[in-house]
From TrEMBL:
SUPFAM superfamilies cross-referenced by the UniProt entry: Adenine nucleotide alpha hydrolases-like, Class I glutamine amidotransferase-like, GMP synthetase C-terminal dimerisation domain
GMPS ATP-PPase domain span: 115-304
Organism: Wansuia hejianensis
A cellular component annotation (GO) from this entry: cytosol
GO molecular function: ATP binding; GMP synthase activity
Protein name (record): GMP synthase (glutamine-hydrolyzing)
Summary of the function given for this chain in its UniProt record: Catalyzes the synthesis of GMP from XMP.
Pathway: Purine metabolism; GMP biosynthesis; GMP from XMP (L-Gln route): step 1/1
Keyword terms, alphabetized: ATP-binding, Glutamine amidotransferase, GMP biosynthesis, Ligase, Nucleotide-binding, Purine biosynthesis
Gene3D superfamilies (alphabetical): 3.30.300.10, 3.40.50.880, HUPs
Highest taxon, organism lineage: Bacteria
Record-listed ATP binding positions: S142, G143, G144, V145, D146, S147, S148
InterPro entries, per the entry: Class_I_gatase-like, GATASE, GMP_synth_C, GMPS_ATP_PPase_dom, NAD/GMP_synthase, Rossmann-like_a/b/a_fold
């Protein structure tokens, strides 16, 4: 690994992510690890120049204040013990906070500012080759930013040892399966297998309302599909995924409960038959995009808005029904079309529709109509850890409302979500 590293150990802070991003902004690589990291685990991390013990509101576990393992204190590395309430420099904002962090990173630890995408890509290519050797890899290719960047990295590292599998689980946006096949098979020349599993997934999800249960069903069923495809291909030993750092963080740590289980983290089955290849697992979303640019992927692919692994399954809120799923798909297509036509496509980071599992009374053709409500969500963010709501012009919202209520079957209301993250998350489930 070419980058120096500052290690953040989670001793109950709710600002681990912020601190990690601030250090990376200085050009120094950093990772967050549990407070009880062992000596072998610590020794396995390359180029660690210093350790931050990041305490905070969750430091008391079962009535006892947690602390780092003895191996940390015996490592001989510079250590900075931080509790945000008791550390004036980090409690401050602006230059004072930045200076305190920079002083530890550069003056105390003597770390070099060598965190950049070219070095990251070179490291990952080497790591992938060392992990995989001459064996074959199966990639879950959704066509989204994360899996597309993983595909580019794997093609650079191992070439035709990679097989991409695109599973249509019936939870994709309008026209997306067709687009994935066109771009990856016909334009990029990838070895692509297309699997139509719509009925299989929707049958498994029938009547399941709990969001966590839906995510785990989708994650587990994905693995089963890949196992079946791997048996057809012979010699597949690895499964590549577009897992990124927010997926891992939001799925919970030893001191912080999960925000939500991501299907590719908490939803994987215990009897997984593959070794995982996850080269983006330590990158935030903006860093994934920067990696894609450095790999030469087209801007239309790199800057497309993100789409969750469970797809429209977490936007068809509650138990999924085919009619409501289709209403989500059609209303989302209208929203994306109108945002593109009105100059918001590249301005707003993510926008989509969701439909809750409830109906309200309305009027359709002069008669009472109990129909669904569509919720519009439009947010801006850098790293997907916090988000603000886009100020969409009211006239445009009126036009979108008119189109959705007239063109989408079974919908009589359109709502606009004004909630930032936090307190809300970007997705509803």
């Amino acid at each position: 690994m070419k980058q120096d590293m500052i290690l953040i150990l989670d001793l109950g802070s709710d600002e681990n992510t912020r601190l990690a991003r601030e250090i990376r902004a200085l050009g120094v690589y950093t990772e967050i690890h549990p407070h009880d990291i062992s000596q072998p685990q610590l020794a396995a991390l390359p180029n660690v120049k210093g350790i931050i013990l990041n305490g905070g509101v969750n430091r008391i576990v079962d009535g006892v204040a947690i602390d780092a393992a003895p191996a940390v204190y015996e490592s001989g590395l510079p250590i900075w013990s931080v509790d945000h309430k008791g550390s004036p420099a980090l409690a401050a904002e602006g230059p004072e906070r930045e200076q305190a962090i920079a002083s530890f990173v550069f003056d105390t630890c003597r770390a070099e500012s060598n965190w950049n995408m070219e070095n990251f890509i070179a490291d990952q290519v080497e790591l992938i080759r060392n992990q995989v050797g001459g064996r074959k890899v199966l990639l879950a290719l959704s066509g989204g930013v994360d899996s597309s960047v993983v595909a580019a990295l794997l093609i650079k590292a191992i070439g035709d040892q990679l097989t991409c599998v695109h599973v249509n689980h019936g939870l994709l946006r309008k026209g997306e399966p067709e687009q994935v096949v066109q771009v990856f098979r016909h334009e990029l020349g990838a070895n692509l297998v297309y699997v139509d599993a719509v009925d299989r997934f929707l049958d498994k999800l029938a009547g399941v309302a709990d969001p966590e249960a839906k995510r785990k069903i989708i994650g587990a069923e994905f693995i089963r599909v890949f196992e079946e495809e791997a048996r057809k291909l012979e010699g597949i030993e690895f499964l590549a995924q577009g897992t990124i750092y927010p997926d891992i963080i939001e799925s919970g740590t030893k001191t912080v409960k999960a925000v939500k289980s991501h299907h590719n983290v908490g939803g994987l089955p215990e009897d997984l038959q593959f070794q995982l290849v996850e080269p983006l697992s330590m990158l935030f979303k903006d860093e994934v995009r920067a990696c894609g640019v450095a790999l030469g992927l087209p801007a239309s692919m790199v800057y497309r808005q993100p789409f969750p692994g469970p797809g429209l399954g977490v936007r068809c809120l509650g138990a999924i029904t085919r009619d409501r799923l289709e209403a989500v798909r059609e209303s989302d297509a209208i929203l994306r079309e109108e945002f593109a036509d009105n100059g918001l496509e590249g301005k707003v980071w993510q926008y989509f529709t969701a439909i809750p599992d409830l109906k309200s009374v309305g009027v359709r053709d002069g008669k009472r109509a109990d129909e669904w409500a569509v919720i519009i969500r439009a947010v801006n963010t850098i790293d997907a850890m916090t988000a603000t709501v886009e100020d969409v012009p009211f006239a445009l919202l009126q036009k979108i409302t008119g189109r959705i209520t007239s063109e989408v079957k079974g919908v009589n209301r359109v709502l606009f979500d004004l909630t930032p993250k936090p307190t809300g998350t970007i997705e509803f489930e």
